From TrEMBL:
The lineage of its organism: Bacteria, Pseudomonadati, Bacteroidota, Cytophagia, Cytophagales. Keywords: Membrane, Transmembrane, Transmembrane helix. This is Uncharacterized protein. The chain crosses the membrane at residues 7-27.
Length: 33
């Protein structure tokens, strides 16, 4: 497998995980209406 391609996939996965964690954190801290 191409090294550059695997690096790109790795960064995309990390970015998605971080975004998912941040969105969960923000939604969990929202005050209930």
């Amino acid at each position: 497998m191409n090294k550059k391609l695997s690096n790109i996939i790795f960064y995309i996965v990390v970015f998605l995980l971080i975004g998912f964690a941040i969105s969960n954190f923000l939604f969990a801290n929202q005050p209930k209406p």
